[in-house]
Design goal:
Blueprint lengths: L1 H7 L1 H4 L5 H12 L6 E3 L9 H5 L16 E6 L8 E3 L5 E7 L4 E7 L4 E4 L6 E7 L8 E6 L2 E6 L4 E7 L13 E2 L3 E2 L8 E5 L3 E7 L5 E7 L3 E5 L2 E6 L3 E3 L8 E6 L2 E5 L12 E4 L7 H4 L13 E9 L8 E9 L5 E8 L2 E3 L2 E3 L6 E6 L1 E2 L3 E3 L8 E7 L3 H10 L1 E9 L13 E10 L4 E3 L3 E5 L5 E8 L2 E5 L1 E2 L3 E2 L4 E4 L10 E3 L8 E6 L10 E6 L1
Parallel strand pairs: 1-17, 7-11
Antiparallel strand pairs: 2-42, 3-4, 4-5, 5-6, 7-8, 8-9, 9-10, 12-13, 13-14, 14-15, 16-17, 18-19, 19-20, 20-21, 22-23, 23-24, 24-27, 25-26, 28-30, 29-30, 30-31, 31-32, 32-33, 34-35, 35-36, 36-39, 37-38, 40-41, 41-42
Amino acid sequence: MTEFVTHLLVFTLRCSVCCFVLLYWSQMRNHRMAPALRFFSVQNISSGKWLTVLLTGALLLTPAHALQLKATTVKLEHPANGSLLRMPGQPVLLVSGHNHEFRWLSRVDYAKNSTEQIALPAQVQFFQAATLAGHTGSQLVAMGQDALWHYQSDTKKWRQLASAPSAYPVTDAKRMLELEFVADLDQNGLTDFLVPDFRALQVLMQQKDGTFRTYTLPIAAQMQIFQKDPDFFLKTPRQVDYTLDGRTDIVFSVDDNLWVYPQQPDGSFASTATVVPLGVGLTPDVQAQQRGGDGRSYEGLTITRLERLLDLNGDKVTDLVVQQQHYVDVMEQKYSYRIHYGRNDNGKLVFPTTADQQINTTGVQFDVQFADLDADGRLDFYTPAAEIGISKIVSALLTGSASVDWLFYKQQADGSFGTKPVHRQEVDVGISLGSGQFNLPVTAVLKGADGKATLLKAEDEDTLRSYAPVGAKLFSDKSTRQNIKLPKRAINLLVNDLNDDGKEDLVLPFGAQEAKGQTNQITILLQ
């Protein structure tokens, strides 16, 4: 999508700061890795991730329910501008960072306020936490060029865990990033691995003795060529119980079909997909590619894609969300999200060809999320959106900032989402022409012990506003303030229940371009 944005705005806008919204957010959505190779990361949609963190806005708090966060700062020996990951069940964070020449990965024990740098082999690219046979507690694992690796904390050495050729045959020497390539597919308590390649997805099922059974699920990547440089787009493996037998299947979207690889009773996967026609009007993959020079006008163009497969209404049946992107012209876009609620038809999952509900929005959107914000058992909808136009370009160039609206829609009891957002929050994104950096201030949603979310928003670099949960509107219009040193750039912040007390906490990363005395550190905010 980065290339799409560049060609979409044409050469006259190519270097324009206006592109910050499309380009920056497209990069964050489509890949957290080397620019020329994008992998829509394998992810459990219900998990928080940085997108949940990015839920920006403003946590509505009345003075009687003011949220006061306890701050602890941990110094690092490198910028915290890569990824943040908590090791489940441990008071440990993994923090990666980089500069123009090097990359780093640090282990932070926030119970002891201590840090330790981890030496990185040249061939590893992505890290994650895993449960491994014969080892207690969460283990650090990495995916690289042709293998999976395990970091042994006692010897401080890496060992090869399994051979696994991937779509990353070379390493970006300046990045070490978190990526979700793990899952417990057969629910045996051990981590399985999903490793993408250009022609197939390798599924490594971990056995009780620590060995792996590997299954190859054929699915081809898409490639685009601009000039001489290729871009690869890997199909997203979606993990759902499509066959309604209690086992996790792997599903890919191809044109207006689903390719379903059912998990068998013995934990294996078939080598041939079951092709399920959807009939909901998804744009064929080739037509969905948007490149300048194809001779296609953007006026009136509509692209329809599969957005999500997940249970929206809590009935234990997977639902289908379709995104429809409509171009008024090359600058103005409108998005709608069509909800097709899944039904169990005599043991078979079916989706109606006509949408049950629809969410209408405007502006360019970068990070759509579904989450239960008010603890009613139904997933609500929220997304950041930016209006793009000539006046916006000029304003961004003159002021060095641009606004992004966070739109929140509450799911009603009948499965509808209303005709307009129940809450809207504006966030100013700073633009540095000197560094070419886009600075999204702290914006996050934290859930309390009751499961209801509070919206947090940075007022400036020293003040955090909190907006408390309020029924039908999700968040209050009034806020309270707390004085806390905040980073200018908080795109990679982490939301997680760090002390396992049932309340979500916040980790703020500080890179090398923060204010003097605040660089190369993280700040932990506990509820």
